[in-house]
Structure formats: structure tokens, C-alpha cells
Amino acid sequence: MQSRLPPERELASQLGLSRSALREGLELLEAEGRIWRHVGKGTFVGERPVGGSVDLNLLSEMTNPEEVVEVRLLFEPLIAGLAALRATPAEIAHMEHLLEKGEAARDAVAWERWDAALHRAVAQAARNKLLMAIFDAFNGMRRQAAWGKLRGMVLTADRLSLYRAHHREYVAAIADRDGPRAELAMRRHLQMVRDNMLGQTAMRPEPVQPTLTAVAKVRRAPAEKRVGGTG
Contacts by 197-204 with C-beta closer than 8 Å and gap 24+? Predict the structure, then answer.
């Protein structure tokens, strides 16, 4: 049974910290997977439960980094598009804060920590419980040893600079409420991550996929504009 931390105000008083200092410490612990938060229920010690009974160690034996990146490419661009439509100003400010943390990262371990935290903040802002559960499943795989070793082998200074630029692009698109641009920026980012990690050619054509924002626009369009004719 995971223990719940006291409310933020009480915990800050117990530790003799300011609220802002406490929040920064909790963000770091959450990024490291040592605590997790449930909106409306509190902050808990330990790793976030995934799907109730999913064993990440077992799952990691059944899959591989290529499959994880494949799933990320399917879901995360759609998640970014939804975040652009649904993120609150506070959530966007939090993403920008995590961007700054990633910019200040001095090594691969610190970068991976803030990178994962930023991607999760985007997923939370999408406000879709099913997508959040799927995200947590494959995001949890990133804390497995094999994933970290592979990322560490291919993460160069030049690539890190490009990844940071990609992060700025999709967060800016979310802040601008531009769903299609957020989806495109996230897809380009993950394609580069895939190519760098797995040595696949960036020239391989990507399948055309319907986007959630495009579907939403069709649903919102007046009925007469959707009808192509009288036949």
C-alpha cells in the first residue's frame, strides 16, 4: 500500500521550506519516479501504478525499444494535439518550467529525467484517461535499464541541442493552441529520436494517419458543409 504525503502547506511547514522550494523538490522526485500525484487525491510515495497490475519488468522482457518508440509515434503526436486544445494556462506554465529544467540539464541522466517529466506533463494536459494509462505504460519502460543504456550511448551534444529545440517547438505550439502544429512538431521529434536510437533512415515514408484535431474539426463543422452533394 503506497503512503500518501501530507498536504503541501503542512509538508512545507514540517520541513521548514517555502512552498516554491517544496514544489521544486516534489517535481524532481516525481520526475525520478519516486513519488506520483493523483489530482484530487494527493501525492503518493513510490512509482505510479500502471493499469492496476501491469508488471513493467515483465513487459520489458516481452518488448523492445523499437516497439516502444513505434507506440510513442502512434500516440504522442495525438496527445500533443489534444493538449493544445485542452491545456490550462497553469499547465502550459508548468511545461515551460520543465523546458527550463531540461535546458539546464548537465548530463544524460538529468536530461532523461526532465525529458520524461515534460512528455508526461503534455500527456496530462490532454485530459484523456485512456491515453494517460497507455502513456504511463510505455513511459514507465523508459526507466528500465536497457532503455537508459541505449539512450546514453546515442545522446550526443548535437542531438541534445536538437531535442531541446524540438521541445521548444511543440510547447510553443501547445501554448499557441495550434493542435496540428503541436502534432507535427511532436511527430518530427519522435522520428528523430527513433532514427538516432535505432539507426533507421529518416527517409522512410511515414504512414498518413488521421489526427484527433482533424477529426474534431470535422465533427464541429456545420452539417451542410460536410455533405458533398445531393446524390
Answer: 197/65, 197/69, 197/150, 197/151, 197/154, 198/65, 198/66, 198/69
Round the CA-based radius of gyration of the chain to a whole number and report it: 19
Topology given in CATH for the domain delimited by 56-214: Four Helix Bundle (Hemerythrin (Met), subunit A) (1.20.120)
What is the C-alpha to C-alpha distance for residues 119 and 95, in angstroms, rounded to an integer? 9
- Work out the number of other CB atoms within 10 angstroms of the CB of residue 178: 18
**Residue 120 cell numbers, joined:** 508526461
How far apart, in Å, are the Cα atoms of 64 and each of 31, 89, 117, 189?
Answer: 22, 36, 22, 20
SS3 at position 37 = strand
The crossing angle, in degrees rounded to 10, of helices 65-86 and 157-175 is: 30
pLDDT tens for 153-178 read 778 889 999 999 999 999 999 999 99
**Domain range list for the chain:** 8-45, 56-214
Q: Can you list the residues of the chain whose pLDDT is less than 70?
A: 1-2, 39-40, 47-62, 142-152, 200-231
pLDDT score for 37: 75
Q: How far apart are CA 72 and CA 186, in angstroms?
A: 10
Please give the pLDDT value at position 48: 65
pLDDT for the residue 204: 44
- What fold, for 8-45? Arc Repressor Mutant, subunit A (1.10.10)
Residue matched to cell numbers 529518416: 202
DSSP summary character for residue 142 = G
